[in-house]
């Protein structure tokens, strides 16, 4: 019997009122491998991390659909049964482009994605000065995604994100999310929640619709643990900077040391073999051997 797709698994989890999903943000293959090694059952592809790692640019709407789809496809297929939730920004255009985005993400193996109500020249949700499309345009984006999913007969999960809180307030944000829910969105996403009271309130106001919490530490939202989010009634929580932040800190320190001392001073356990094992070396060697290959009969560890 074939395994359920990651999208189907995610959809079934959302149908289970006792299920809760915590997904660390990943931005490239190595960060995803480390998150999987740590035991996480779902991953989140951060748009900010994709912009930073692919282009070396801030999250200002620079990534195209092709950038995001290519990164998402690689991440989703490292562990095809583990759901990948991916940023899809504004859907990259009008209804036709939103439908195309949905189709490409679904075929890439993405389990769920969120579309927001910023204008095309968007920016990170935790920066000020965001400009929004009107509610009708936002609802059209969501409807286009839902209809594309249905045409494909895909279980990919459509998440409706509103950034209206900062400039239009809570009531308008709630109205937009309700409109998105009525248009068929599977999950709601209020970006920039600014207090614990608001977090609890939006869960109550939209119950029993599943909501996702975006936990960007030192951003607009107070620091909430996965356990706190679950207690409040959220069904999913994402941590966009969970790997990008530590990577930035570690690279800065190592490169300062290299510049100063002439060596990065890595721990003795950080061998090439260790890095490659995190990236699936042993599975690759096993695959080769099981197929009758002899290229790696002598092993790959220089210390033997």
Q: Which fold does the CATH topology of the largest domain refer to?
A: TIM Barrel
CATH architecture assignment of the largest domain: Alpha-Beta Barrel
Contiguous runs where pLDDT drops below 50 for at least 5 residues? none
Query: How much strand content do the residues show?
Result: 5-15%
Radius of gyration: 21 Å
> Number of helix segments?
12
Helix content: 40-55%
Q: Helix and strand succession?
A: HEHEHHEHEHEHEHEHEHHH
The mean pLDDT is: 93
Shape: globular
The CATH superfamily title of the largest domain = Phosphoenolpyruvate-binding domains
Task: Kindly state the number of beta strands.
Answer: 8
- How far is the N terminus from the C terminus? 42 Å
Describe the overall structure:
This protein has 304 residues and is an alpha/beta fold. The protein folds into two domains: 2-247, TIM Barrel, CATH 3.20.20; 266-304, no CATH class. It is built from twelve helices and eight strands. An eight-stranded parallel β-barrel has the order 1-2-3-4-5-6-7-8, surrounded by nine helices. Helix 5 links the parallel strand 3 (84-87) and strand 4 (112-115). The termini are far apart.
